[in-house]
Amino acid sequence: MPIKTYKPTTPARRYMSNTDFSEIDKKRPEKSLASNIKKKAGRNNTGTITVRRRGGGSKRQYRAIDFKRTRFDEKATVTSIEYDPNRTSFIMLVEYPDGTKSYILAPKELEKGATVVSSDKKIEPETGSRMPLKFVPDGSFVYNIELTPKCGGCIVRSAGGTATLMGKEGGFAQLKLPSGEIRLVKDGCAASIGQLSNVVHEKTVIGKAGRVRHMRKRPSVRGKAMNPVDHPHGGGEGRSPIGLTHPKTKWGKPALGVRTRKKNKKSGKYIVRDRRANKRK
After folding, report:
1. Which residues, other chains included, contact 226 with Cβ-Cβ below 8 Å and sequence gap of 6+?
2. Nearest 5°: phi and psi at 280?
3. How far apart are the C-alpha atoms of 59 and 36, rounded to whole Å?
4. Does residue 77 share a domain with residue 22?
5. Which of 90, 110, 173, 276 could cross-link to 197 by cystine, CB 3.0-4.6 Å?
């Protein structure tokens, strides 16, 4: 899918680019699968901001995505490829033989009219099909992968995402994730075959601040531009350095490069190779 560029009518338009939505063939979501999203702007039930730099944004509806796909051995027909404002990859509306409709993540190169199937047994490893990892051939590309059997897909769900199944041994499947991490996953966990759509998403250029605001992102202010009461980096006369031995967060914790993952985290034993520096666990 090519990148769409614009005529340089303004400085912001000069470098702005976007995904060419030529694959999209339906603009309105399925009413039975869409619901309104209440804007919270990063606030909790008392109105206190618990997540900074959120607010505003364009109106959007939430599309209920079926990450589990538990209707086994039923061929579903793809009726449309749609844009979802809540995620980076495209989604597709599928219809089962009894007329039931459902949204699932759309893989690359799967068009309207195609059929997809999910099973708990061994089936043909075609693009969009879903089955447990123990039945997937080695070297296959997979996405929407479960971490616990029957819990629904948890990882590799963003645009262009795909993981490589490197092998299976001792009840575990070894996956190479998009981050470079090599991880063990129980071979009873299900995964979908292929690569997710909208591969060129990472190449898009936002171009102007207004598009960021449409995404419900408010401006981020540098800590050293604040007062000492607001941030550890704040204070000083004019444009001052942070004045600390190393950068800290607003709450005084080390930042920039400090690892936050717990050393004794239970799931750490399933990481064969760390995504950062080939660190073996």
Report:
1. 233, 234
2. -95, 140
3. 9
4. yes
5. 90
Contact 197, 232 (CB under 8 A): no
- Sequence-ordered list of residues with C-beta below 8 angstroms from that of 124, at least 6 positions apart, any chain: none
Q: Which of 177-191, 198-212, 263-277 has the lowest mean pLDDT?
A: 263-277
Q: Do residue 161 and residue 255 come from a single domain?
A: no
* Tens-place pLDDT, residues 221-239: 998 999 999 999 999 898 9
> Which positions ≥6 away from 79 have C-beta within 8 Å?
92, 93, 94, 95, 101, 112
**pLDDT score for 279:** 54
Q: Which domain holds residue 254?
A: 226-274+277-281
Q: Is 33 helix (H, G, I), strand (E, B) or coil?
A: helix
- Residue 232 DSSP class: T
Residue type at 175? Answer: L
Q: Are 226 and 234 in contact (CB under 8 A)?
A: yes
Check whether residue 176 and residue 117 sit in a common domain: yes
- 238-258 average pLDDT score: 87
pLDDT band at 20 (very low <50, low <70, confident <90, very high): confident
Nearest-angstrom CA–CA distance, 198 and 99: 28
Side chain identity, residue 191:
A
Residue 260's domain is classified under what CATH number? 4.10.950.10
Cβ-contact 272, 182 below 8 angstroms: yes
The DSSP secondary structure of 146-190, one letter per residue, reads -SSTTS---BS-STT--EEEEEEETTEEEEE-TTS-EEEEETTSE
Tokens coding 15: 């470098």
**pTM score of the predicted model:** 0.86
**For the chain, what is the domain count?**
2
Handedness of CA 25, 29, 33, 37 (dihedral sign): positive
